Amino acid sequence: MPGRDWILSTVEMLQHEHLDVRAVTMGVDLSDCADRNIETLCRLVREKLGRVAGGLVQACEQVAATYGIPVVNKRLSISAASAITAGHTQDELLEFASTLDTAAEEIGIDFIGGFSAMVHKGITEADRTLIESLPAVLSQTSRVCASVNAASSRSGINMEALLLLGGVILEAAERTAEADGFACCKLCVFSNIPEDNPFMAGAYRGPGEPETVINVGVSGPGVVKRAVERLRQSGLSLTLQDIAEEIKNTSFRVTRTGELIGREVARLIGAEFGIVDLSLAPTPEVGDSVGEILQAMGIAHIGGPGSTAALALLTDAIKKGGTFASSSVGGMSGAFIPVAEDSALANAAARGTLSLEALEAMTAVCSVGLDMVALPGDLSAETLAAIAADELAIGVVNKKTTAVRLIPVPGKKAGEWAVFGGLFGQSPILDVCRDSAEEFVRLGGRIPAPLQSLVN
To answer: Pairing between strand 272-278 and 212-219?
Structure first.
């Protein structure tokens, strides 16, 4: 049984330090809904989502009331849509996406992920149609999120797909120019996409998952920050190992909390429990920031010397504490650094210490990658593809998940601010090297898988 101090510290986390269950995401298999008639497909999808997920919000609210732990976001993820919609046109895919949007609204959730394609080794006609439909889909729906897996450690990097996506990202931004290219906030391009990620925009129900599954994302940047601050203010003689140990212990308690909530929601709704993803996912609110954790550890300027090492320590300690607490840790589990969604990171970008290059270095040791990065609106599709290729290469070579959410902001240049609102936050637009990578990118094909892909 946990001791009195353990219980009191957990209560303190809930009351004053932003501990919450950031997302309960229900994965739903929709493969049995596939049909060449778009009206039939949409009807079957809407009926199934209502039947199996209609009670998700009520179950989350019931568990939150029982344990006094907020469940901030209730979400759905579906099977990769390119497989479900094979043979349909772009207009029909927009109709399908609108059905998902309506179903999400009826169920009462904030986002539905899985408008996705897996193209790391090649692009089918269904994949290409889905990718080309993304500008319309993301600009004309409010809850649908999309992801494309364009690289893996087993297959390398599909440069043809990245060039196609570069143009898609630009078009999606232009279609929502009045909102600073907001449609791009709902599109994530991955290497090594996880099949059980509960966080948007990259959540989808992977092919190895159960029929219905509950995955939980627990986030507590504020909790970890306060733990580090208390330790440093204790007057003790400390080393970085002591800080790592404190983060690990905090991670343990947070993971236990998340698994409890996830298993209870799964029981109430009749789904299997999947994983708890212990990823420090910040919000624009001050005190709920990964950047502030780095500052509490002694990094004066985020993006400056020591930033990558401090982030590596943080990510490793989070993973160790989480995996000791539960045998069901999954997703990405680490630290997210979405620039626009983290006030400390956005401020560092405004000061000039957090450049695109510094950010890329930091992504080598954290979860996800170049996340919620606002860029000048006049970049070419080739430059966007090259930026994405650089980031995905980090994941491919290091056998880890990396991704990009790049937002070229129409009509704005480096140094100006992009404002997305709500949990998406705001950020200065980062400068980009203008030396063209067009010749490299347009060679096309695939960058081959690295030698370490041969692990059989």
So the answer is: parallel
CA 128, CA 314: separation in Å to the nearest integer?
A: 39
Q: What is the pLDDT of residues 213-243, one digit of tens each?
A: 999 988 778 888 888 998 888 878 889 999 9
Nearest CA to 384 out of 418, 430, 345, 342 is that of 430
Alpha-carbon span 281 to 216, nearest angstrom? 13
Structure tokens at 31: 């493969």
> Which architecture does CATH list for 218-249+278-453?
Alpha-Beta Barrel (3.20)
3-state DSSP assignment of residue 374? strand
Answer yes or no: pTM beyond 0.90.
yes
Which residues, other chains included, contact 442 with Cβ-Cβ below 8 Å and sequence gap of 6+? 163, 382
Largest CA distance in the chain: 69
Choose the CATH number for 22-191 among 3.20.70.20, 3.50.50.60, 3.40.50.2000, 3.10.20.30: 3.20.70.20
CB neighbourhood size of 334 (10 A): 25
